Amino acid sequence: MNVVLLGAPGAGKGTQATALTKLLGVVHVASGDLFRRALSKNTELGLLAKSYMDKGELVPDEVTIEMVLERIREPDCAAGVLFDGFPRTLSQAEALDDRLAVEGKAIDKAVYIEVSEEALVKRLSGRWICRDCQTPYHAESSPPRVSGRCDVCGGELYQRADDREETVRERLKVFFSQTLPIVDYYERQGKLLRVDGNQGIDEVSAAIRSQLQVESA
Ligand code: ADP
Ligand code: ADP
Ligand code: ZN
After folding, report:
1. Is 96 contained in some domain?
2. Position 127 in a domain
């Protein structure tokens, strides 16, 4: 099964992804995490991506598509992938479909987590991320058990530079202009599932499971 998680920055994609990948038996592929990992290793790709991420702009399609398609060629992705943060443009969505089609595969469902703009800004401004495993936390809605430490791996929590308010506004603008068209793209293909993301984390998880018709273990 191949599923796309759609939603604005801060909608809760990363938060929902971990449990959902386990439930579906697929691998989590998050383009933003791949860029941040490349940057932490100081690779050319990471440095290039940083120049766009810092401004809240999208990394060019060509580079992004190549990176993600390369990732999903790895053997662990054969059983299926949960895509998070990719595709973000129509060209990316088409490139992904073309690539999957070569292997006789396709995107089965796209889950769109819808959240009000006001809530998105609040979520991003209070977000803390694990430096090691990238699990997201929130100062108010989902604090870690030990302050500054990841519940999952004990890693150090930090605030992303692009979660500051000016960059957040730009990222939201980019989402509405460049990414929203792919909601229609999946809707036209009859693959779109909408979930109200303006609820607590557990309620959103339950809504996603119900839309995908999968039960929790
Ligand atoms: P968010 O929390 O907004 O979902 P991500 O971690 O997915 O953040 O993305 C952070 C940044 O990485 C984006 O603002 C963009 O610069 C870059 N990025 C991530 N995914 C993509 C993509 N599919 N296409 C282009 N740029 C991307
Ligand atoms: P995305 O990956 O879509 O950018 P995240 O999963 O990183 O979003 O979530 C953004 C922030 O909002 C994080 O700080 C996270 O803890 C918090 N968050 C996620 N889902 C909810 C929710 N349903 N209610 C309140 N806060 C949430
Ligand atoms: Zn961690």
Report:
1. yes
2. no
CA distances to 5, 123, 156, 161, 196 from 147, rounded to whole Å, are 29, 18, 10, 20, 30
For residue 130, give the ligand nearest its CA.
3
> Helix, strand, coil % (nearest 5) of the chain?
50, 15, 35
Ligand 2 within 6 A of CB of 9: yes
* Residue range of the domain that includes 80: 3-116+164-212
The answer to whether residue 54 is domain-embedded is: yes
Ligand 1 site, residue 7, Cβ cutoff 6 A = no
Whether the CB of 87 sits within 6 Å of ligand 2: no
Cβ atoms of 111 and 212 closer than 8 Å: yes
**Spatial CA neighbour of 17 closest among 166, 138, 134:** 134
- Reported as a single tens digit per residue, the pLDDT across 132-186 is 999 999 999 999 999 999 999 999 999 999 999 889 999 999 999 999 999 999 9
Q: Which atom of ligand 2 is nearest to the CA of 203?
A: 23
Measure 31 CA to ligand 1 centroid, in angstroms.
6
Closest-lying ligand 2 atom to the alpha carbon of residue 199: 23
Q: What is the spatial distance between Cα 147 and Cα 80, in angstroms, rounded to a whole number?
A: 35
Instruction: Indicate whether 121 belongs to any domain.
Output: no
Q: What is the pTM of this model?
A: 0.96
Residues labelled catalytic: 13, 88, 127, 160, 171
Provide the domain count of the chain.
1
Look up the CATH number of the domain holding residue 65: 3.40.50.300
